[in-house]
Amino acid sequence: MPDQPLVPFQNPLETLSHLGITVPAGSTLTVLLAFVFAVWLIYTLVATYHWLKYSHASLLAFPAIFVHLAVSVALMSYALTGNFIPSV
Amino acid sequence: MKEFELEPGEHVVKEARKHWFIFLLQLLPFAILALLPLALPRLLEMFNQPLWSTVNWGGDGVIRLLLATWWLFIWTAAWLTFTRYFLNLWVVTNFRIVDIHQKGFFRREVSSLLLNRVQDITVDTEGILVSLLDIGDINVQSAGAVDRFSMRGIPHPAQMRDIILKYVSTKPSGDTLGA
After folding, report:
1. Are B167 and B94 spatial neighbours (Cβ–Cβ below 8 Å)?
2. B113: how many CB neighbours lie within 10 A of its CB?
3. Half-sphere exposure in the Cβ direction for B104 (13 Å, CA)
4. Which of A51, A56, A75 is the closest to B1 by Cβ?
């Protein structure tokens, strides 16, 4: 039987520190967020280009882009603040 | 339309995309993947894995960040799927059938089949649900270099076939548009 209480969910960075690898948590999260945002931005721009370029999609282009941006902003807000609606 | 220019005297008769049910089926994997992080702790709890049952998905900052990031990826992928679904289109004009196929981003194919080259049209519907929703494939046999032209998963295929046949029967033979 282990004599230490169980940790419900251990931060992966703490797990790495047990292996002798020290990663500063703040910079890792910043890099992760920057990477996620870059990927999201590239795909959003590419899809938006296609929506706007092809005229047969034009009727739905702006609502589709707006919904995508709104949901994305809500998810980003939830990631950073815990609220789906960003506070101004 | 930018994808192709209508010839003098040519007009669009009908436009068709794949049936919405097929689009919903394409979204199903994304829905499962989105719900997976929420369902996983409960599933593991059923198999007596107490560590996972104590994970607070909404409260812990890092967990919340990972969860929202996962959802953002899935949402973006689902939206890209919708984009591709919407950009794929079949257009029937009084002269031809145009297949606008978005194979991928920056990969687009627009092909036309003149109605005066159409030799045979078959409608293929298979399955109970597909029959109930009136979804089917249309295969158009032509005399040209591209001998088969397929529209897959379109709504009301019989109606579409009738429309094509109506304009095929009124088209005089000839190789050029408007001939």
Report:
1. yes
2. 18
3. 1
4. A56
Task: Kindly indicate the confidence band of residue B49, based on its pLDDT and cuts at 50, 70 and 90.
Answer: low
The complex scores an ipTM of: 0.77
How long a stretch of residues is chain A? 88
Q: With beta carbons less than 8 A apart as the criterion, state whether B102 and A46 touch.
A: no
Tokens 């280009």, residue?
A: A49
Write the pLDDT tens digit of every residue in B106-148: 888 888 888 888 888 899 988 898 889 999 999 888 876 666 7
Q: Tell me, what's the pLDDT at B63?
A: 82
Compute the average pLDDT of residues A33-46.
91
Q: Do B68 and A79 touch (CB under 8 A)?
A: yes
* Option in A8, A29, A40 nearest B76 (CB): A40
Angle at A54 between CA A48 and CA A57, to 5 degrees: 80
CB contact under 8 A, B72 and A60: no
* Mutation target among A4, A6, A7, A9 for the B interface, most CBs of B within 10 A: A9
Beta strands B148-155 and B89-93, pairing class: unpaired
Q: Would you call B72 and A51 a contact, using CB atoms and an 8 Å cutoff? A: no
Residues of A in contact with B69 (CB under 8 A): 32-33, 36, 79
- pTM over the 0.90 mark: no
